[in-house]
TrEMBL record:
Gene3D superfamilies: EutN/Ccml. Its main location: other. Pfam families: EutN_CcmL (PF03319). Keywords: Bacterial microcompartment. This is Ethanolamine utilization protein EutN. It comes from Posidoniimonas polymericola. GO terms for cellular component: bacterial microcompartment. It comes from the Bacteria. It is found in: Bacterial microcompartment. The keyword Translocase does not apply. InterPro entries: EutN_CcmL, EutN_CcmL_sf.
Length: 86
């Protein structure tokens, strides 16, 4: 689980059926200080209704993705699991 900031959204003309009904967000991971970018931006499936510039928590836990998306076979790597308060 890591902290990230939503920097935009992504559009897909074709999605795996497990991702139908979910938005794709472009998120920038941040280091422990919550100010220093840590790596390249990632694509995450939005399960919380996050918006641009929101600070979010994301996870790459496959089991969590399968449970949230209700799909045993999903290509999803990153999902938003929380929106951080300011």
């Amino acid at each position: 689980m890591i902290n990230a900031r939503v920097v935009g959204s992504a559009t897909s003309t074709v999605k795996h059926r497990s991702m139908e009904g979910f938005r794709l967000l472009v998120v920038q991971p941040y280091g422990p200080d919550a100010q220093t970018p840590d790596g390249d931006p990632l694509i995450a499936v939005d399960t919380m209704g996050a918006g641009k510039n929101d600070n979010v928590m994301i996870t790459s836990d496959g089991r969590a993705a399968r449970e949230v998306l209700a799909a045993e076979n999903t290509p999803v790597r990153w999902i938003v699991i929380g929106i951080c308060d300011h």
